[in-house]
Amino acid sequence: MLKVLGRVSSINVRKVLWCLDELGLGYEREDWGAGFRSAQSADYLQWNPNGQIPVLLDGDFVLWESNSILRYLANARGGEALYPAAPRARARVDQWLDWQASELNPAWSYAYLALVKQQPPQPDPQRLAQGIATWNGRIAILEAHLAQHGPYVAGERFSLADIALGLSLHRWRSTPMERIAAPAIEAYLARLATRPAWACYASDATP
Questions:
Q1: Which of 21, 81, 165, 192 is the most exposed place for a label (fewest CB within 10 A)?
Q2: How far apart are CA 114 and CA 64, in angstroms?
Q3: Burial letters 12-21, b for 16+ CB under 10 A, else e
């Protein structure tokens, strides 16, 4: 039985759970992280020395990093529809998974923490304004891409990239700040909302 370690309020845990649902896989989940068992404990650090969630346990195989877990699940459990085997189609999915982790995620860190988590409780106005502008700038890249190349991020079919980016866009749309106009993204999110897992992992209670 697959086991996921991490609290469901984590965006990175929700990526993995959404993928599992799309693949129709059974799993167990244990709460770890803020408010639950500490991911800094010795017990948890044996699985992930970075002290981050989630971790996937597949028998004696241990894997961390959420996007790597998505790829593993698709490769190991018949998920070619989400992660195609053809080199160019797969590279396009990888491109956007990597962009989500390396470009989009760092862009929202200060603004999201300040506006949603109130960390810090009195944010620096200049840093906050810059953070919002940077976040919107990354979103503008995705908006232009979807307007030209949609309906999904990697082409005509829903893929792992849409799981990662769909949840990131839900976070952007749920954060109380001034956002750029993004009609292609709004249409894209409406398409994602037709998938049953969207209601589970992109609800208003889980930005």
A1: 81
A2: 27
A3: bbbbbbbbbb
The values of phi and psi at residue 178, to 5°, are -80, 125
The per-residue b/e assignment along 148-157, b for 16 or more CB within 10 angstroms, e otherwise, is eeeebbbbee
The secondary structure element, H or E, covering residue 147 is helix 125-149
Show the DSSP H helices in 4-156 as ranges: 11-23, 42-45, 66-76, 87-99, 105-115, 125-149
pLDDT grade for 203, boundaries at 50, 70 and 90: confident
What pTM was computed for the model?
A: 0.95
φ, ψ of residue 61 to 5 degrees: the values are -95, 130
- Residue keyed to tokens 């909302």: 193
What span, in angstroms and rounded, lies between the C-alpha atoms of 161 and 91? 11
3 state SS of 56 = strand
**Which of 6, 1, 3 lies closest to 44 in space, CA to CA?**
6
Q: Are 160 and 82 in contact (CB under 8 A)?
A: yes
User: What Å distances lie between residue 43 and 51, 66, 167, 173, CA to CA?
Assistant: 10, 20, 29, 36
**173-191 per-position pLDDT tens digit:** 999 999 999 999 999 999 9
Distances (CA, A) of 55 to 10, 49, 163: 12, 11, 17
